[in-house]
Specification:
Length: about 425
């Protein structure tokens, strides 16, 4: 991998492949993922920690195509999953179940029993389920618990998970109940977990939460790992302050080493990045269907919408959009909107290069929570996905057809 090329690469190409050529070959809208970018991010993260037993568990939910999971496996990344379906796809992608961390939220206990039978690492986040687990499995299956540290961190309110009103985790104020259950059922506590939210850059938050976790960890005798979840912020907009991974690595390595010394054992340190690994790797390519001047603005209508990329409407998130058919043209202001019969504004009065019908627009940072949150709203089909691996484009998901949309519908004749 040539990391210089990666940083300098022209925004209209990936690994030497013109993005517009991909639209000619595979049509649009189209999701494209650059594997070099994933590997670069992974190596940067791991390389920032020194003398630490670090394990990366990719947050599958960010982008769950089986070929992406196979690629993660190939380069040595483990998995974090949140559903039995993601777990089964992970196993199908070649992972040993025990390398997969399963962190459910409010699922049926029957699903948890199935996960245990498959052998994944189990992370529970409610006291009633720790009790059920203890009664049924005692010390026979190792357990991790997710802690809610009552710390407010994360980008949009919808993606904050560590505050007191969040449904996630066992409150740090209720841990006495966990300690008695662990005692009562001789539960084998393998790890503790925390994930305070997505999209926060502040390293002090990580360090503060780490101190809380170290205190909790001292109450369990035989832990094997501490899992700090994720939340690493990536730049969506020029000037966005990303999490400084090098600084995080050096500060966390030192604080974790100090903890391990106090604990009397060298534990593993786990992280579960989603956005950090795949956000920058992904592009959504769409074409302008109409240029529509109105008294308020000039709209660029696209052959995609919130059904394919919901982040701007769901979290008011910013995605850079480039006209890759005319990257050097004169600039003017446009509002970029989708084809869904609902307000689906991707950008309002954004300065962009001159755009004509048929031009290809590339949404950047579309790798994480892009395709994985897509839907068939308005009965629209979902795009194809292409992976760029070793300078070659490989189709990893076919474009849907109307038959796919109708597949499970049952037609009644009246
Ligand atoms: N671990 C756990 C337990 C999580 O719940 C999440 C994300 C992650 C790791 C990965 O977080 P990340 O590295 O991607 O920030 N759809 C939203 C983000 C939702 C995140 C849900 N949990 C978005 O598009 O911004």
């Amino acid at each position: 991998m040539n990391t210089n090329t990666l940083q300098l690469q022209n925004e209209t190409e990936v690994q030497g492949i013109q993005l517009t050529d991909l639209v000619k070959e595979y049509g649009s809208p189209l999701y494209v993922y650059d594997t070099e970018s994933i590997e670069y991010q992974y190596k940067k993260l791991v390389g920032s920690f020194n003398d630490t037993n670090i394990r990366i568990k990719y947050a599958t939910k960010a982008l769950s195509n089986i070929s992406i999971l196979k690629y993660m496996n190939k380069i040595g990344i483990g998995l974090d999953v949140v559903s039995i379906e993601e777990l089964k796809i992970g196993i199908k992608a070649g992972y040993a179940a025990k390398e997969i961390m399963y962190t459910p939220s409010c699922v049926d206990f029957l699903e948890i029993e199935e996960v245990i039978s498959l052998g994944a690492t189990l992370n529970l986040d409610s006291i009633p389920f720790v009790e059920k687990f203890g009664m049924k499995y005692g010390s026979s299956v190792p357990l991790c618990i997710r802690i809610n540290p009552h710390v407010e961190a994360g980008g949009n309110h919808k993606i904050k998970t560590g505050h007191i009103e969040s449904k996630f985790g066992i409150s740090i104020d209720q841990l006495d109940q966990v300690y008695s259950l662990v005692d009562k059922y001789k539960i084998d506590m393998a790890g503790i977990h925390v994930h305070t939210g997505s999209d926060f850059g502040d390293i002090d938050v990580f360090l503060k939460v780490a101190e809380l976790m170290y205190e909790v960890a001292m109450n369990f005798k035989n832990l094997r790992f501490l899992d700090f979840g994720s939340g690493f912020k990536v730049a969506y907009k020029k000037g966005d302050k990303e999490t400084n991974i090098e600084e995080l690595g050096s500060k966390m390595s030192a604080s974790f080493a100090g903890f391990c010394k106090r604990y009397g054992k060298k534990l593993e340190l786990w992280f579960e990045p989603g956005k950090y690994l795949v956000s920058k790797s992904g592009y959504l390519l769409a074409q302008a269907t109409v240029i529509k001047p109105t008294p308020a603005t000039t709209f660029i209508g696209l052959n995609t919408g919130l059904n394919h990329l919901i982040r701007p409407m769901m979290y008011e998130s910013y995605h850079e959009i480039i006209n890759i058919s005319n990257p050097e043209g004169p600039k003017q202001k446009y509002s970029v909107v989708g084809y869904i019969c609902e307000t689906d504004t991707f950008a309002w009065e954004r300065e962009m290069t001159e755009t004509k019908e048929g031009d290809v627009l590339a949404f950047k940072n579309a790798g994480a929570y892009g395709f994985s949150m897509s839907s068939n709203y308005n009965s629209r089909i979902r795009p194809a996905e292409v992976m760029i691996y070793k300078g070659k484009a490989v189709l990893i998901r076919k474009r849907e057809t109307l038959e796919d949309v109708l597949k499970n519908q049952i037609e009644i004749n009246f």
